[in-house]
Amino acid sequence: MDVAGNDQRGEQLLFNYCSTYPEPGSVDELLQFEKLQQDFSNQYTLIFSDNLANKSIVVIPSLTLDQEVLSKINGALYYEERLLCLLMLLRMPRTHITYVSSMPIDPIIVDYYLHLLPGITGYHAKERLTLLSCYDTSNISLTEKILARPRLIERIKQSIPVGHAAHIACFNTTPYERTLAVKVNMPIYGCNPSLVYLGTKSGSRRVFLKSGVPMPAGAENLKSYEDIVHAVAALKDMYPYLKKVVIKLNDGFSGDGNAILKYPEHIDKKELFNWIHHNLYKEIVPVAKDLPVKTFLEKFMLMEGIVEAFIEGEVKLSPSVQCRINPLGKVDIISTHNQELVGENGQVFIGAHFPASSDYSIEIGVMAKAIAEELKDKGVTGRFSIDFISVKENDVWKHYAIEINLRKGGTAHPFLMLQFLTDGIYDETSGLYETLNKQHRFYYASDNLQSEAYKGLTPKDLIDIAMFHGLHFDGVTQKGVMFHMIGALSQFGKIGIVCIGASPEEAYSLYIKAVAVFDAETAKNNATYSN
User: Looking at domain 316-530, what is its CATH homologous superfamily?
Assistant: First the structure.
């Protein structure tokens, strides 16, 4: 065998392969991407409804966001594991999945998902699963890592079986994902990156205004420190009783792109502007831990942002609505949630109850549909969520749209797991989720079940604990517990969880049980270690 000759031919093929790519962001790339997306409509019509069709999904779970802000989240790299829920698509016997990650995923974690597949053996599923890794923990997005590895791009292409219709599923879409789509010659089931502005804080406010949905008083498209000063002063001038404002980066994540500013008490109106001008820098409090004000403001100048009135209320909740616009332009309301926010000012997302309160789930669904129709008219496709603030005043709920997240956010993967496991559907007219056998299901989900005591638990330890204590999903009763972000447990003491029950109370009780189990097991281990 002529090994040297083969290597030379391989290098030449790789050179030819790489040299044919259009420049990122060029007209040629944009045209090729548009063609891929147009062809995807035909693929969607012919393939998606057929569970026996030959199709492939390339999962790119890249959080292509500002990495400095993202780095403030413990175990951010392991958020890539949240889309492992898409392995449940392997229940379709002719579907192939290629899953790409920054670092290799422990086989125990993969097996944990595959054992949940109804009617499919683990062997059959593994034969149709390709796992690829960049072997790279650096502080750049996964998509950028892939783009820096032409051989990995070639492996992605080669992983697609002959005759399969293929597309990319990703967390969010940016110009990096567009470049990758063109290089692998596959469409993305997601929003065109050219429309990404609509999912920024400023873009969201423009869409809310167009769709006639109420939002907090504020100002968008702010670019400078002076813009912030003027917006903060103007809000207080218009609303004298306003106590706080929220300053938001256009592209924040999980609340960590926000900062709070409190107005001084008992200040003369004439002195207000001067106070804000001279004290704004000292009084801003970023939500992200250890993010200096200087860095926050530098990020603001770079990506721009908004200033909004902080909504007060004795009874205040943070619901969200998950929507989908398919490639044919059909708008669906697919879920509602009551988000659980923590922190001094309730800005950090840690979990969610599904569905949202029956007091208003239908109402916010109607508001979300108006917003989604506006987005559809602008060309948006894919899955996204809309966040609200809801305040109860005199037994009447008032809802304010806060932001649009054009990505698979924190409520996407729990709902996908529920749907894949139960084959049910959320009914927007009743505000309830119904399984195939006409039973209602509810869940509580969190990405932040976390404790210092949990550090050191490996994936194998987790599985042992879960099986011993019955923390698993029961396919017969269609109730139980599933874990995600398992890889983050050992280093960060952090794991995600979805608890499904026949009532909201039962779902949350499963979460309480899981916490008690983990606390007891780690206390026992620590006691043994100490002795």
Answer: ATP-grasp fold, B domain (3.30.470.20)
